[in-house]
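Two proteins, back to back. First:
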Amino acid sequence: MSISFTEAQLNLWLAGFIWPLCRIGALVMAAPILNTRQIPVMFRVGLVLVLTWLVMPVLPGAPLVDLFSSDSFLMLLQQLLIGVMMGFLLQMVFAALVFGGQVIAYSMGLGFASMMDPQNGVQVPVVSQFYMIFATLVFLMIDGHLVLIDLLVQSFHTFPVAVDGISRNGLMEVLGWGSRMFTGGLLMALPVVAALLLVNLGMGIVTRAAPQLNIFAVGFPITMLIGFLLVWATLPIVLDNFQDLLAEGFAFISRQLGITE
């Protein structure tokens, strides 16, 4: 007994597998934590294949088009754009922590103390790396990765595979949301920066009152010590602000994808 497939059946199966694969692959390669360099490429490819295989039965039928036509190329670009957009928005949420940590590190005098960020492969201040470790744990603890996968599956129903998808206005809104990265990071760093500013003002008054005092030998370690104490004391506030910004990012992704909460 031989099993035979017609060309139409084969194209339908490939369309139902390739288009979700492109969107899921773009998301995995762009989303934070999942795209870290510490995760082998083969593992990420396997994760994309497994997710595609699991969500295929619940996805709407893909349009049957020639895989080597111009419409197919436009559909491929749309799937990549949707996946990258979702991952890019979450990257900005995590980048707010990096920005806040940089502001705090420069205020403490730790601007030159940098470590290699395993996620982005660049050097960031140690304070930013400290925040990123806790943010990663919080993201996994609140099942942020599962929420992201749920939004991805729902996006196939609100934004089905087609030639049209995210509009130009939608892209401009995504770029405009990047301002939240700076405002969110500044809000996270503001308590520590304000307290260190008062410390520096106090050091200035002491230097004015006792000019013979070597302020660089005394003030620098005091500023660092107070900075570390403030970072530890304000850590719950920073993580709460991160969760609020993360929830805002998920809500913005839902609005862009037309998902009703």
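And the second protein:
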Amino acid sequence: MSKKNLTRRQFLTAASVGTIAAAASRAIPVHAQASKEASKLAIQGGQPVRTKRWPSWPVWDRSAEESVLSILRSGRWFRGSGNTVSQFEEKYAALLGAKRCVCTVNGTNALLTALHILDIGVGDEVIVSPYTFIATYNVVIGSCALPVFADTDPETFQINPDKIEERINENTAAILPVHILGLPANMDRINAIAKKHNLKVIEDACQAWLAEWRGKKCGTLGDLGCFSFQESKHLPCGEGGAVVGNDDEIMDRCFSYHNCGRPYGSLKRTSGYPIIGTNRRMTEYQAAILLSQIQRLEKDTAMRVENANYLTSKIKDIPGIVPHKLYDGVTRAAYHLYPFRYKKEHFNNAPRSRFLSALSAEGVPCSGGYGPQYRDGLIEVALNSKNFKRSFSKARLRRYRDELHYPGNDQLCQEAVWLSQSMLLTTKKDMDDIADAILKIYESRDKMA
């Protein structure tokens, strides 16, 4: 078969098994010749690569309806009058290999609970990745602590462990790594740094159900781990969250705190309200939904991983398309989103927004992901607040403003492309559609600008 006469699909098949030497060396001319008969881009009125709909999310199992209806009919919706939340907590802890689990109303409140129980608050500093959902910023600010960002590694989309230690000072209390997009952060390096400086580690695993680092589940590798069960998540119930941990005394305090400070476990010997608490409880019918959804989690996770790996093999040799990199310690990624980077210099300098529009027009919905949220204004609101001015010196706040420069994160925010997790719950042929659409755009790159 002549390289010059390869169809787009034939090129992708050949490139995935490494039979085109020029492709392996990223020689652009091979791709340019991959299909001289490339169709007109859909964004310019051509026929899209894909017209078939992608799977919707969440997915409901009708067989589970009776358990939810039974709770609704009983009138026992509060966890104190039922045992469904407790059943899910036990099952989820066992699935993760954690000793204990306490469910909360959402992932944000799981993180707030973890910070409070580990005594992180006024005047403290918490090292966190800037590339994360805004809740990770908000919980630190909401605890009247300073979110100190360590720059992002654009290759892995994770907090760069080489940038953590330089941000540590006498006020640093914890590291809050985020396994963003379901891709594990480098927990060996993070835990080693935390141990060296006597810092707590709270894992934001809100997008990382069943992701693994060296065979251990994310969320079980630090002092506490936090999860979200919001509607878009792999284990959804509309809203919901959980704190997991292996220290009984800490988990007893988590339970007591999330239940208005009522005594629990090792705190039962006291009377009244032994600790300051709040109401962050999950409801019984939320837990019933989770007990249904958890039955599909392992199978779905395996499918996402298989399709993500296959998709990476299909697009990795397309110039200007850089799939995410996993650390050597990752034994499983969860793929809440499938990410890659777009290098515009290989696409006739067409801006990423143009690429995203072109890919969506070809029937592959996509997103540019997070922006540099530290420039959105919320940081200044916090720094100018009465609480922060009381908690931190003027010199510290001035220095903090001067430190808000993160070139790795800025680069990632300009290059990232995300695909939804539900798109991975399909077949290899569907992954071929994604790869085919990307290659089609590359072939027409001279028409992109």
